[in-house]
Each structure stands twice: as structure tokens, then as C-alpha cells.
Amino acid sequence: MLHHSEVIKTRQIYAFYDPRYEIGVTLGVDSSNPKRFRDAQCSAPFGMSCAGVWNFETDKAGIDAFKIKARAGLPALTNPRSGIEWVDLSKEDAVQRISENLSSDAKRDFNPKPTKNDLYFTNNSSLVERGRSVLWIFKENETGILKVTVLSDWQTPLEDKRGYSRLGFAQVAAYLIEDETSQEANNRTYEIHKRIVSEFSDDDPFKFSWLDKTTSFGSVDDFVQSGGESFIRLPESVIHSSQCKPSDVAITYNKPFVAESDIVKKMQSHFSSSKKK
Question: Taking the domains of the chain in order of start, what are their residue ranges?
Fold first, then answer.
């Protein structure tokens, strides 16, 4: 029986760009078109655009090799904690260079499928039933625009949502409901997430939980703290812990909350010492 990664099927290489900037293209791969079109939209306040798609009939190892070939010789564009495979070219030049690198290996798709609009982006249905949900506030480097999201993956809270970010993200704050690990607590966490988006964002579907550019963190923090819920803001030492810093840009999405992890013990120790004071 073939492993899923060994199956030969249509797989794609994508070239995305942030429409706010003339320079900068990022590469991604996928086998479930148009999933990457949808996922990429969460990476920038006003969505992402697609410059090109190249189709292959290959397995996962093959598409990974083609991505390396597509990227070969392209100048790097880097920002602190920016996302995957950004290159220092305009979209037109990048598409030309990638096409030349791939030559006859791929079939260029000149009519990419449209993105899927989803204001809140994440499908929460299965996540509330397991683990422990944590409300995160990020900000985009340079612009300072805030993004609110919910994760249950403590090991990769940052790269999980930065995958196609041109400017990169930074952690600002994280909140959880103290002493509760339950479906009800997770539901309440997702509810405050939606309330924040409704309060501080406009109706643009490409926001994907990005807040209005005039929104300050203080306003969001006050909103969370005064919302009638027992949310605890985690200390700076926790959200900037080495375990929270990305060691890989792989998009992992939400994994179950592991109660035995070192970072959880650190949180529990912090709360215990605070109560004794």
C-alpha cells in the first residue's frame, strides 16, 4: 500500500504576492487546489494575490524537488520572521524566472481558481472538543496592524499563521481561561475572538481576523479584560519563550494542547506564585 506522500497526483507550486508591494513573491506547494489560495489570505491585512500556478503529476518528494528547482537562483527578500520563500523580484519577473527554471517540467496554469472568502478563516468545529484554546494577538512588522487568532498548538504559535507574510509577525499577547480545559472554555475563547473581530474590524472579507489599522493593542486588551470572562493574560516570559519562537516555517495548524509540556508547567508555576502573593 502506497503512503499518502508517495501517491502520484496533480500537485501545484504557487507564487503569491502582497498587493501592497510591487516587489516580493513567495512560493508554496499544495496538492488540494485551491486550499493554498484560501490559506494564504490570512497572511496579510488585505489578502494575498496569486501571480502564477504550475501543475505537476508527481508525488510529494517530486513536488518538493520541483520547488527547489523553481527557487534556484532567485534573490532572497527577507524580513524578521517573514514567511516562506520570499524572493526579491516583481511578480512579472518572478513568474518569468520560475517558468524558465521549470522549463518543460510543469504546465503553467493561466487561470488560477479564485480565493475563498472566510472572515474568521479557521474551522473551529473539531478544535473546541480537544486540547486547550488560547487567544493570540499578533502584529505585522513595520505596519503594526494587529491580528487576532485562536490556537491550541503551543509549540508553534507564530509560524502557524505567518506562512505567507511578507513583513512577518511578532507576538503581542496571549490569553487563556484560567484553570479550565474544557469544550465550554474553548467555545468561550472562540466567542471572544469573534467579538473582537466584530468590534475592531470592518466588513472586508479579506481581513481574516486582521483588525483596523487604527486599533491599538490597549483597546483590544481592555476589551478582553472587561468582557466578563475570566481570561488571564500570559506573562511576557511565556509568550516570548524560546519554545514560542519558530524553528521552522512549516504550517502546522492546530495540534492538541499537551498539558505535560514545559511551557504549561511554566504557566502553572507563574499562576501559583501569583496567587500566593
Answer: 4-109, 127-276
Q: What is the dihedral of CA 58, 60, 65, 67, to 10 degrees?
A: 90
Residue 272 exposed, middle or buried by CB count within 10 Å (0-12, 13-18, 19+): exposed
pLDDT tens profile 52-86: 888 888 888 888 888 889 999 999 887 766 766 78
Contact 49, 19 (CB under 8 A): yes
Instruction: Give the C-alpha separation, 104 to 232, whole Å.
Output: 56
Exposed e or buried b for every residue in 221-248, given b needs 16+ CB within 10 A? beebeeeeeebbbbeeebbebeebebee
Phi, psi of 213 (to 5 degrees): -65, -20
Query: What pLDDT shows up at residue 21?
Result: 94
Q: What is the value of pTM for the model shown?
A: 0.74
